[in-house]
């Protein structure tokens, strides 16, 4: 089962309404927003980070926001975080960097959701592929992320 199929299965299992939008392959949130005709703040950025203790965590945030490294480390309960290596992302999440979904990963990783996403009426995330985006409400996103 592909990561996208796993995500569709999770959405349907929980009775969550979602909309699938196909578009040209995109590799950044600005390109995703442009392809969808929405603001960048409505796109979801899922960043896989590694803690000082070599544990992986996922930070889910609006696409227009930059990482506050000190705040991210504090939130994750560590002294330092950095981007995870692309090979590790592929192994633990199930897709390449640039289309990491906010949930449905191959392994159980702690997920931290930025509260600013809750101010949108709907948000768009990549389901592990570069040429599709799924639209859900922030409330549904939070429910599926089991976010901290």
Task: Walk me through this protein's architecture.
This protein has a single domain (3-145), classed as YbaK protein, CATH 3.90.960.10. It is 28% helix and 22% strand. It is built from five helices and seven strands; from the N terminus they run αβαββαβαβββα. The strands form two sheets. It has a four-stranded mixed β-sheet. Strands 1-7-6 form a three-stranded antiparallel β-sheet. It starts with a helix and ends with a helix. The mean pLDDT is 94.
CATH class: Alpha Beta
- DSSP strand count: 7
Shape: globular
How far is it from the N-terminal to the C-terminal residue, by CA?
Answer: 27 Å
By secondary-structure content and strand pairing, the structural class works out as alpha+beta
Q: How many distinct helices?
A: 5
Order of strands across the widest beta sheet? 4-2-3-5
**Helix content estimate:** 25-40%
Strand content: 15-25%
Instruction: List low-pLDDT spans.
Output: none
Describe what is shown at a glance.
The chain is 28% helix and 22% strand. The protein contains five helices and seven strands, in the order H-E-H-E-E-H-E-H-E-E-E-H. The protein has helices spanning 3-13, 29-36, 69-75, 86-93, 138-145, and strands at residues 19-22, 44-51, 56-62, 81-83, 111-113, 123-125, 132-136.
Tag the structure with descriptive keywords.
7 strands, 3-stranded antiparallel beta sheet, alpha+beta, YbaK protein, 4-stranded mixed beta sheet, single chain, 5 helices, globular, 28% helix, 148 residues
């Amino acid at each position: 089962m592909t990561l996208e199929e796993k995500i569709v299965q999770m959405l349907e299992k929980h009775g969550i309404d979602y909309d699938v939008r196909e578009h040209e392959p995109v590799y950044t949130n600005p390109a995703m927003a442009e392809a969808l005709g929405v603001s960048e703040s409505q796109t979801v950025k899922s960043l896989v980070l590694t803690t000082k203790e070599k544990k992986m965590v996922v930070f889910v945030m609006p696409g227009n926001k930059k990482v506050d490294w000190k705040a991210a480390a504090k939130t994750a309960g560590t002294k330092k975080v950095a981007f995870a290596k692309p090979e590790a992302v592929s192994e633990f999440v199930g897709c390449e960097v640039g289309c990491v979904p906010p949930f449905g990963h191959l392994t159980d990783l702690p997920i931290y959701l930025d509260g600013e996403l809750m101010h949108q009426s709907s948000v768009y995330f990549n389901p592990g592929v570069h040429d599709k985006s799924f639209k859900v409400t922030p409330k549904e996103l939070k429910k599926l992320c089991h976010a901290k």
